[in-house]
Amino acid sequence: MQTDKIKYTLKHRKAFRIIERQLLGHNTIRGYLHDLDKIFLYMIMDYERVYKIHRGHSRHHALRARTHADYVQMVIDWECARLTTQNKQMNARETLDKLYPKLKDKVLPIIEELGL
Fold first, then answer.
1. CA distances from 84 to 19, 62, 73, 77 (A)
2. CA neighbor of 79 nearest in space, from 47, 36, 113
3. Whole-number CA gyration radius for the chain
4. Which residues contact 71 (CB under 8 A, 6 or more apart)?
5. What distances in angstroms separate CA 13 from CA 18, 80, 81, 89, 100, one per listed residue?
6. How far apart are CA 22 and CA 65, in angstroms?
7. If we measure between CA atoms, which residue out of 79, 63, 74, 64 comes closest to residue 30?
8. What is the DSSP string of 9-56?
9. For 101, which DSSP code?
10. N or C: which end of the chain has fewer CB within 10 A?
11. What is the pTM of this model?
12. Where in the sequence is the domain holding 59, given as residue range(s)?
């Protein structure tokens, strides 16, 4: 069991809900469930496998995002990453510019809609 990864993910989930509430005015079901799969997967799998499974199946990541709600969740995830990860100190706009420039047409309007 990867206790350190579980603790980090719990901290990230809390930060996600805080940012989601600030930006949307409420928490969503998806916000409450955000990254919950990782908590359970870390109990039985190594980091690399959890990373691949989570990114391949979660709709708040670039590979699977399709709907407006998916992209909103993605932006919130990017925005809160700097609160819990020392090596990810970019905000959502910086993350879009530096890591996902191909998503600019879909994501920039959402960043602006959220006032970021």
1. 12, 20, 17, 11
2. 113
3. 14
4. 65, 106, 107, 110
5. 9, 9, 10, 17, 22
6. 22
7. 74
8. HHHHHHHHHHHHHHHHSS--HHHHHTTHHHHHHHHHS-HHHHHHHHHH
9. G
10. N
11. 0.91
12. 2-114
Q: Which amino acid is residue 62, in one-letter code?
A: A
- pLDDT tens digits, 47-103: 999 999 998 888 888 878 899 999 999 999 999 989 988 887 999 999 999 999 999
| 2, 20, 114 from 25: Cα distances, Å | 33, 7, 11
b vs e for 103-112, b when ≥16 Cβ sit within 10 Å of the residue's Cβ? beebbeebbe
Provide the token pair at 39: 């908590």
- Spatial CA neighbour of 33 closest among 51, 68, 57: 57
